Amino acid sequence: xxxxxxRSGPPAARREGEEDDVCPVCKSSRYLNPxxxxxxxxxxxxxxxxxxxxxxxxxxxxxxxVDIRRRVAEVFNRREDDFNSLLDYNNYLxxxxxxxxxxxxxxxxxxxxxxxxxxxSRNQQTISLNVQKSLQESQNREARQVLEKEQARIRREAxxxxxxxxxxxREEGRRDVINMLASSDGDASxxxxxxxxxxxxxxxxxxxxIQKQQQALSSDSSNGAPNGGFFIQGLKTKVExxxxxxxxxxxxxxxxxxxxxxxxxxAWDRLDRLQxxxxxxxxxxDFREFCSRTLCEAFSGLGVFIGEEVTRTDPAFVGxxxxxxxxxxxxxxxxxxxxxxx
Amino acid sequence: MAMSPTETVAPSSNxxxxxxxxxxxxxxxxxxxxxxxxxxxxxxxxxxxxxSLNDEEKRKYVKDKQVGKGTYADVFxxxxxxxxxxxxxxxxxxxxxxxxxxxxxxxxxxxRALQELRHPNIIALYSVxxxxxxxxxxxxxxxxxxxxxxxxxxxxxxxxxxxxxKAWMGMLCRAVWFCHENFILHRDIKPNNLLIAADGExxxxxxxLARSFAEPETRxxxxxxxxxxxxxxxxxxxxxxxxxxxxxxxxxxxxELVLRFPFIxxxxxxxxxxxxxxxxxxxxxxxxxxVTQLKAYLAPTNVVPVKRKPFYMDLFSSLGSSGVDLMMxxxxxxxxxxxxxxxxxxxxxxxxxxxxxxxxxxPKRGGGVEVMGDDLKRRGGELPAExxxxxxxxxxxxxxxxx
Lengths: 342, 403
Ligand SMILES: Nc1ncnc2c1ncn2[C@@H]1O[C@H](COP(=O)(O)OP(=O)(O)OP(=O)(O)O)[C@@H](O)[C@H]1O
Ligand SMILES: [Mg+2]
Ligand SMILES: [Zn+2]
Fold this sequence. Notes:
- Chain B: Belongs to the protein kinase superfamily. CMGC Ser/Thr protein kinase family. CDC2/CDKX subfamily.
- The structure holds 2 protein chains of 2 kinds.
- In chain A, helix 4 packs across helix 5 (86-104) and helix 5 (86-104) packs across helix 6 (109-122).
- Chain A is an all-alpha fold.
- Residues 1-20, 30-56, 217-238 and 312-342 of chain A have low confidence and may be disordered.
- Chain A contains 13 helices and no strands.
- By secondary structure, chain B is α+β, with helices and mostly antiparallel strands.
- Chain B has a domain at 148-401: Orthogonal Bundle (Transferase(Phosphotransferase), domain 1).
- Chain B has 13 helices and 9 strands.
- Chain B has helices at 18-21, 33-39, 47-58, 105-116, 148-153, 162-181, 232-235, 244-259, 269-279, 309-316, 320-330, 341-345, 398-402, and strands at 61-69, 73-80, 83-93, 125-131, 135-141, 184-185, 194-196, 202-204, 211-212.
- In chain B, strand 7 (194-196) and strand 8 form a beta hairpin.
- The longest helix of chain B is centred in the middle third of the chain and has 20 residues, at 162-181.
- The chains are: A mainly alpha, B alpha+beta.
- At the A-B interface, helix 1, helix 4, helix 5, helix 7 and helix 8 of A face helix 4, helix 6, strand 9, helix 8 and helix 10 of B.
- The complex binds adenosine-5'-triphosphate (ATP), magnesium ion and zinc ion.
- Adenosine-5'-triphosphate (ATP) binds next to strand 1, strand 2, strand 3 and strand 5 of chain B.
């Protein structure tokens, strides 16, 4: 609603001192004209019911409306992204509002209930899908909170540890001073002062580190501010996708190589040696990746016919990467390798 | 750089990108001559020929307003001179005197990698030309719908569920697998390098840190990948690693899609490595043989056992049990035990409910100033423009009301 507040300027200004006169439903105060007490602004749908006007602030009425709205919202739970355009969405919201209004105000009650029920039965799938989506969103919000709590716990623990360390530092400092005093004939008050400063310095350094960590932690959560609330959302004009077949993660691409089949292992001294070296294994260097690349390079000249390629240099040529890459390989332009600079 | 095993990766039915296909992406005589030139300074074409080819190329594109700014580049939206409605992005690399020929390694990496890769989920490079002051210009496919980070962060306006997460993840994993299949490591996978095209397709972009798979004897740099998405072997400064470095980053993106903030964060490298140890588990010889031999391995003061499934279920239950299994396979500490990008795509999660959203149904960014205006949703308290009275639709926050 904040955006709207900007747009509708004046009401915001009028808000001052009218805290109690806020409409319980739309939370706008504009429907009340301050000069005519309880004269309902015609823009708000409350205007029709005289009875309601008197009971505006009675909880029971609010509760009833809330219940009806919730019931409707559970059924008409379309989301904005279900729609082709915002206009469609708004039209839908208007239709839903018609039904809601009628239910609240007991106008054409049977007809409205019937509409609600029939929509519910016709749209079961979408309704539960959208329930699912909202659920996921709230689960994700919860996940954020879980992580935030966890971070708060870490922070508290760090603070406790810090406190203990500080105490220990102080005690050590005192011991140091005592020891120094015992073992030297120096100026007692200077030694005490120095001892204190050392403690102070130690704790300052730690404090700075902790502060930094806390900043990091608080910036962690700044993005995750939950935006709570339950929204009535829109109707759908698009149809659910009809069977498109199973989802293909590879999207039709294949990793089958045309000219070679890779073996699991190659007897190759150069690799055998390195494969036992933790400098390679622990970093995750993948020798199969390397073999695959080597084989690919070795075979990528096959199937290239230079004669054909040469005629294809005019810019209008619709080239497949394959032939062009192969052409380069065939033409020996492999020197783009330069020295490996990475 | 490795040649694409391209005969193996014929696009399924994807011929609609006519702009891309009208240009042979690697033909040395045409669009990429400038890139080739910088790759091989000594064998460059005669200057005059180069100039005229370059000018010809440059004239094909018109630069409009700036849409982004990177570390070494300004990004503009533009269009084909011959077709004003065909939008393109022009990534203009600023001349950098620190480098030989004024061109950083990042740029060379990016051009080379993109030349190799043609895939619906990888940003397409149409052409390269140089402009005055020796600035290099990469002509890229234009992605008008921002990046995944914007969607993840806008918790107020952008709502999405598991089907949407699965769709984005699917597109990302396809792109990563395709890179690996072509022997290229991306090494900088993170939400703000995942751009959203006009049709909702996700595009892996910013190949500035990409490199081809290394010869076994080659030492690779470990100081790659933005910190929050960096795998433990790179924190420990492994010099020989593999494609699964990217898989770790993909796991981080998956977690972030759910949490809507980065899963593993730290202000410094050490802090972030500690976070991995706290959040995922502490790497030890038991769970990762050889790890203590890695150069920057730090003996932990506090060993946290590797987190088991219930921990992940608490946080990521919305992904379902199998989605959590997949995520855990991407967070294996030992790179040898981590899923490869191919194994990721073979996982059963993709076949389970819910089916990934269709790209045209994916949520769009919540619109800044431009999108707001007349098209605003009507909510509680708002007056319809025409002052219609009785049917004001509104969003109502019951929770806040009932207190
Ligand atoms: N093809 C594109 N279409 C639309 N916008 C783009 C495109 N490419 C880049 N941008 C915008 O420009 C920004 C910078 O681009 P990019 O990440 O490629 O540059 P970079 O110099 O590698 O940046 P950095 O290394 O700082 O992340 C992106 O974050 C994005 O907002
Ligand atoms: Mg970037
Ligand atoms: Zn009202």
